[in-house]
Specification:
With 413 residues, the protein is an alpha/beta fold. The chain has three domains: 279 residues, 4-Layer Sandwich (Purple Acid Phosphatase, chain A, domain 2); 89 residues, no CATH class; 33 residues. The protein is built from nine helices and 19 strands. A six-stranded mixed β-sheet has the order 6-5-4-1-13-14. A six-stranded mixed β-sheet has the order 7-8-9-10-12-11, with helices on one face. Strands 15, 16, 17, 18 and 19 form a five-stranded mixed β-sheet that branches.
Length: 413
Amino acid sequence: MIRIFHTADWHLGHHLHGVSRQQEHQRFLDWLLDELHNKQADALIVAGDIFDSANPSSAAQSQLYEFLVKAKTRLPNLDVVLVGGNHDSASRLDAPFPILNALGVTVVGGLSRDGQGNIDWQRLLVPLTNAAGEIKAWCGAMPFLRNADLPSNQQEEDPLISGMKALYAELFEQLQQKAGNTESLILTGHCYMVNGAVSELSERKILGGNQHALPVELFSDDISYVALGHLHLAQRVGANEHIRYSGSPIPLSFDESDYPHQVVQVDVKAGQLIETIAVKIPRSVQLLRIPNGKDFAVLPEVIEHLQSLILDELPIEQRPLLELRIRLEKPEPGLRQQIEDVIAKLPVRLLKISTAYSGSEKSLADLKIEERLEELQPLDVFQRCYQNKYDKDAPEAMNALFNELAESLQGTE
């Protein structure tokens, strides 16, 4: 048997409305190291979006490399596989490959090709060993695939999906050639699968948007486990117990604060999935939204709720992060001051005040929510500019082209 820990979407270097999440990430990494040791893990797979941006800060990079050094020092036999996500720069992740590979850490930022443009498949084939050093599984470490990675000779109706199928089929064939009869086959992916539950604000639309959600037929039935990244809500894909998103280790927006975050412990033996266990990650900093959910409340109700909070006195970096959602009938010039007078007495950090205007005779369905530019995705901005100029929605084909352009820029440094 081999025990694998599956995690993804770390987003090291992330800031939430200007507040660094470095302390929360460090708490997670310290906890993960203990879990790997206590549960006697044989391998760790991180399925993309290691960093929050293609140009991570030096602090974020140091946080990753310090974790890897600690992990390999404490668990010398641990196999570590890191693959690039849509937030990562493939070339930046791949740059330290020779050094990390010498430490027993495999990183695959993107597809590597030779001078003739052929994919170096051997670079994606990673042996996973048990404590005795015996190979018990092979991992096909597929990174996030950009449009430029896909074969251009596909004749099917949707060349993007058929291109993805072709690449995964080739990777599966390469894995089969490597593996023996008793060795399990593992795949990684950083993509959006059909029927995946998306967190509203956190994940960028990739591969042209949700119209390019990928089918489960992408993965052969002979695969023991598929470790996915991109969606921040932990979930299995359809009824498939062996195809899973681990989810992000911390909530990356207030929309993600209402559900638990986890890593997945995966036990496989001789090609058979034995068990998957959701290992809950303790939350080091609470995210509070008043009122809870996506509703708005009038100012007196919000203030009353704030005054009723019972919170522990904590160091500033451990205090809860707070968002208020206030419904107004008209602009309220003294709004901020009223809120700050109440907040000053509480051990919280106010990150955001969201306001929505209804007018005295309008229903809640008519709320007009104020949004700031930094809260919008690039596609949202493009669509609004197009709407303002042409007084109609942008065509789907144009949206897809914009996504492709944005994705190509995301992949550059």
